Amino acid sequence: MTELNPAIQAGLVKLHEGRLHDPFELLGWHPVADTWQLRVWLPTALEVRIGKQLCEPLGSQHSGLFALTYSQQQYQQQLKQTAHPMVEWQEADGRSHQGAMPYTFAPLLGELDLHLFAQGQHWRIYDHLGAHLTEVDGVAGVRFAVWAPAAERVSVVGDFNGWHGLRHPMRCRGSSGLWELFIPGLQAQDCYKYEIRNAQTGAVFTKTDPYARAMELRPATASLVEQSHHQWQDQDWLKERQQDQWATKPISIYEVHLGSWQKDDQGHFLNYRELAHRLVPYVQWLGFSHIELLPITEHPFDGSWGYQTSGYYAPTSRFGSPDDFRYFVDYCHQHGIGVYLDWVPAHFPKDSFALARFDGTALYEHEDPRLGEHRDWGTYIFNYSRNEVRNFLIANALYWLDEFHLDGLRVDAVASMLYLDYSRNEDEWIPNEYGGRENLAAIAFMQQLNAEVHSQHPGTVVMAEESTSWPMVSRPTWMGGLGFSMKWNMGWMNDTLDYFAKDPIYRPYHHNQLTFSQVYAYTENFILPISHDEVVHLKGSLLTKMPGDHWQKFANLRLLLGYQWLQPGKKLLFMGCEFAPWDEWTETQSLPWYLEHQPAHRGVQLLMKALNELYRQTYALHERDFEQQGFAWLDCHDYEQSVISFERHSAQGSVVVIFNFTPVLRNHYRIGLSHHGVYREILNSDSNLFGGSNQGNLGQVCSELQPWMDRPASAEIVLPPLGFIVLQQE
Questions:
Q1: What integer pLDDT is reported at residue 520 of this predicted model?
Q2: To the nearest 5 percent, what fractions of the chain are helix, strand and coil?
Q3: Could you tell me the residue ranges of all domains in the chain?
Q4: Record's family (predicted)?
Q5: H or E stretch at 673
Q6: I need a surface site. Which of 183, 313, 357, 434 has the fewest CB within 10 A?
Q7: Which string of DSSP letters, residue by residue, matches 558-577?
Q8: Does 4 have pLDDT greater than 80?
Q9: Residues 123-138: pLDDT tens digits?
């Protein structure tokens, strides 16, 4: 044993106390007089050897610090072989181990990485932070890096070191708040976390990696070292997407909660690959263009449906590995289906193992609860004014598009981000610097997010779930807008469902709920959504919202789907609604697929298929979704009969759409037509194919030169009860 000088003794004490800020100051290669020492830190080892030479304990027999002294000549010879010699050691349990030591390696994070991250501009920071399999100086292992500026010490812990917090302390990279360490010998699927000691309080706790690319299956919470081996086969899809003029294309989105769409015969989750082979053929058959996934970012609580995310960079392990998810997306693309992801940058849960108070301080969130908490949801709000937090989120959005080839993101709870007083009483929020209620940092974050996504991934879309009248949500940032591609039309959804829930006898008094959306329909690029939120929390299923007897409920539901699909705007429908379940959705059970075989439910499903086919094939129903010129009322004032009619236009032609929102059959309803001639009835929701009463126009309508509804021609039509028809001139 060697007597230690005061500096080494002080460092050794801090190592044992877990307070040494930079272990490289003490460990690894160090000159001592005319020699060199290789100092090895193995606090649980009894004996340490390098080659055939026994290392000497420093300080005491059980200090955990060992050293081997080299002459200058021996040192130079060693460097010619490797600066990272293999170390063999024996633990107290009698087991022997060997490997290179982490503390002989140079820093891996470059100065440019540190600078860009501090500026909040490192869009591929996920390639540098987190855990990455790599080879350094010919030695294979894993490099770790994490942001924890308020930490006195950060260590990597895992199965590989017995979760011993003193075993692998990390290197601090100065004022950046970043910590890093390369650990030789680690492999894919190794479990790990970070043990953090707060500099102010001395509190010690473990955290999952914010940048972890995989995590254990809940309720376990460790991060996993992940390496992808997936070979993408969707190059044609991506190439075409870059040139995509999505605004003029038919976009109909099937919203899916993967955990409850279908389960296996034992009631367990399906794997991403199994889901691909079951879900994609079904979505193709129905005719949807895209799937939108409720959040599959890792989350501990099934009942949150993914909206309380703990692992922003990790696809949930409930359904398999990250490569399994890559396979899912790849399979969708190869079969012509796009994939959107519901993404949640508005808030995160208070789980102690994850982002909350990550380094013992309010790091990702605000310290002041008036800025940093959503009390309704029991979650924290991201601090968008902090560069590194904005970088974390924007890089995360880009990560999903880059690593998993996703076609876009739906941003959850945008309204809660925009307003400082969102769901707060008067004394529970802090005004911005100008005294207003707008969250200026969140606005700047969203503008930057959208600008980067659209710049780096042309053809992808970012959709906002925004429920207020905030202007220019889907207008470019250079115009002063938020820069989203599209916005969910929550006003249309609320008015529509409220109207349809009313008994037809009362509908004449609420006719404006059908027509009001056209007042503002072209102020944004709107999606018409009927999402999971409308069929949960005792709201009932779509079918049970409908008034009337059994037949009328199904007719009303077919009418609702037609009203959604034939209006201007892209479409979104939650899974299951296409075959009319009686029960509201629950994440704990599979959809009631047995209903597919019952005629009334099958009729709704077949109508959904027909609507998608018509929407996809008819330019007039999608080409000018966001343009006033694509729509014209024929009659929006027939409130007494609860009938509306309109035209949809495109450069390729027009269609006429008429809705009857009462159970009254109207045999001689006159409709104005822009052209004289024969019109085909190309869709009728009352067809017996869909479970209707088969009232219609025998496939066609012949117009007369009798002006009506400001049109030069007109025709008397049969308007089915609680039904709609679509006419197209031959």
A1: 96
A2: 30, 30, 40
A3: 6-100, 111-225, 627-729
A4: Belongs to the glycosyl hydrolase 13 family. GlgB subfamily.
A5: strand 666-673
A6: 434
A7: HHHHHHHHHSSSEEEEETTG
A8: no
A9: 999 999 999 999 999 9
